[in-house]
Specification:
Layout lengths: L12 E7 L6 H9 L7 E7 L5 H11 L3 E6 L9 H12 L8 E5 L3 E2 L4 H11 L3 E5 L2 E5 L2 E4 L11 E5 H6 L9 H11 L3 E4 L7 E3 L10 H15 L3 H11 L7 H15 L8 H17 L1 H11 L1 H8 L1
Parallel strand pairs: 1-2, 1-4, 2-3, 6-10, 7-11
Antiparallel strand pairs: 4-9, 5-11, 6-9, 7-8
Length: 315
């Protein structure tokens, strides 16, 4: 993969990072962003009530790097995933002049990024105007070596959501609820945009805290994922297939059981679902196509179907 060595016109990007109690990892993320080949024009870190020393580290870096700023929120006493994360992101994003940037990323503070990460994402997006959101692939370390978090190619990773500003605006921003990082990719496809991620060596990043473990335990994280799938509108058959697949990933078997239980708990409790019926119809049709033809073929078909819609609005 090749790219220019310096930033060109139209490469102003802003990072917004919701952050709470990340003292163990935050310096790594800060240092790998500072070392980027094309650095962000602005980085807003929203400290969501940290109590572990994270705040002091953030303030130290902000003093030494004028393009980093920190917003301090009141401690609510606990980490709130889904709605809390997006509320923090929205506060950070609304604090800047959004028209001053070509791209924006929601970036977690427990990552180790490769040095050309954002440069190469912008290169890809310059080559493909319909590419609305993109990322590399997440890996985490284990006793047996690196383990992939197995993100599908049809979406960008939730911990590094890199967006064209106009695309994020077009889909209405992120939904402040569980599965916000799944809903956004499907809304991109609905509106004719393309969402993607790649496993290229120069785009692989290390997730220092594996997905689904940030809220007390693996079990709670996987149950939460199942609950989010129910909220989003996922069909029963698709959910079962997804849970069976996840049962093959760490923690084996138990992770799939937790996802299945989280979904059915939502069904039994008649929990609220994402209220956009057009979206839920689109989602279930797409999922049926995935089951019948495979995810890659289904994604390609939807993208071809929606190409005219996109072109009529953006060309």
């Amino acid at each position: 993969m090749s790219a220019p060595a310096t930033a060109g016109v139209g490469r102003r990007y802003c990072l917004v990072s919701p952050c709470r109690n990340e003292v163990k990892y935050v310096r790594t993320t800060l240092d790998t962003v500072i070392a980027q080949s094309v650095r962000p024009a602005r980085w807003v870190i929203v400290d969501d009530g940290s109590t572990d020393g994270t705040s002091a580290i953030l303030e130290d870096y902000a003093r030494r790097h004028p393009w980093i700023s920190v917003i301090r929120r009141e401690d609510r006493g606990r980490r709130v995933l889904g709605s809390g994360v997006i509320e923090a992101f929205d506060e950070g994003w609304s604090s800047v002049d959004q028209t001053a940037f070509d791209y924006v990323a929601k970036l977690d503070m427990d990552l180790r990024l490769p040095p050309r990460y954002f440069e190469l994402l912008m290169c890809r997006m310059e080559e493909q105007p319909r590419l609305g959101t993109a990322s590399g692939k997440a890996w985490f370390s284990s006793a047996r070596g690196p383990v992939s978090e197995k993100l599908g190619d049809e979406n960008s990773a939730g911990m590094t959501k890199f967006y064209r500003v106009e695309c994020l605006r077009d889909i209405g921003g992120f939904v402040p609820a569980l599965m916000w990082d799944g809903i956004d990719g499907h809304r991109c496809r609905m509106r004719g945009w393309i969402a993607a991620s790649w496993n290229d060596p120069e785009l692989r990043f290390e997730h220092l805290r594996p997905m689904g473990t940030s809220d007390r335990s693996w079990w709670i994280g996987r149950v939460r994922h199942g609950t989010g799938q129910h909220f989003m509108g996922t069909g029963v058959v698709y959910l079962l297939v997804s849970a069976l697949y996840r049962a093959t990933r760490p923690p084996r078997v138990l992770g799939g059981v937790a996802i299945f239980w989280g979904y059915w708990r939502g069904v039994l409790r008649r929990a609220p679902r994402y209220p956009d019926m057009e979206f839920r119809r689109f989602l279930r049709r797409y999922q049926r196509m995935c089951l019948l033809h495979g995810k890659a073929a289904a994604t390609d078909r939807v993208q071809r179907e929606r190409a005219t819609m996109w072109a009529s609005r953006w060309t």
